[in-house]
Amino acid sequence: MEGESIDGLQRVILNERARLLRFLAARGAGDEAEDVLHDLWQRVSVAPAQPVADPVAYLFRAAENLMRDRRRSTVSRERRQMDWHEAGPTPEEAPLGERVLIARERVRQAEVMLAGLGPRVDQVFRRYRLDGVGQAAIARDLGVSLSSVEKDLQKAYRALAELKVQFDAE
Q1: At a CB cut-off of 8 Å and minimum separation 6, what does 32 contact?
Q2: Mean per-residue pLDDT for 36-59?
Q3: Cβ distance 89 to 95 under 8 Å?
């Protein structure tokens, strides 16, 4: 927030932060309440400034909508994963030995690459992408800022994208 102007709805978010977090927690956001509030902040910061008759009510409604969107996204993701696993290969369709070896080698290369980015980046990536822990919870557990967690994830994503380009070239 250094160097940027905070006004309008962002100011209301700062003033109502505790109430918004309690509101989201009461509606089942749990550890994701901070993440939802962060999403709300980001959306408000890029939205064109428009007059809002009741900014507090507007933000509470927007926060609840974001939480619902996240919940729908989670349900959809779980449904896709379940469908994917159910549609997986049957024993007679199992990949041949060579494909299994190639896949294992690529996983090993990805693990080495993530480890090479440093222990915190590796841990943040694994907890967020594999364990499903929210970014705010990871930041709190590691004693770092949410921004640091986001930067660590970006570093891991860039490195994995570069590795994928290498794999595709093979």
Answers
A1: 24, 67, 70, 134, 136
A2: 86
A3: yes
Taking only Cα atoms into account, the Rg of the chain, rounded to an integer number of angstroms, comes to 20
Say what the pTM is.
0.46
Q: What are phi and psi of 51, to 5 degrees?
A: -70, 140
Q: Of 42, 15, 20, whose CA–CA distance to 33 is shortest?
A: 20
Q: What is the pLDDT of residues 89-108, one digit of tens each?
A: 665 665 677 888 888 899 99
Q: DSSP secondary structure string, the chain? A: -TTS---THHHHHHHHHHHHHHHHHHTT-GGGHHHHHHHHHHHHHHSPP---SSHHHHHHHHHHHHHHHHHHHHHHHHHHHHHHHHTSPPGGGPPPHHHHHHHHHHHHHHHHHHHHT-HHHHHHHIIIIIS---HHHHHHHHT--HHHHHHHHHHHHHHHHHHHHHHHH-
How far apart CA 95 and CA 32 sit, in angstroms, is 38
The type of residue at 55 is P
* φ and ψ of 141, to 5 deg: -65, -35
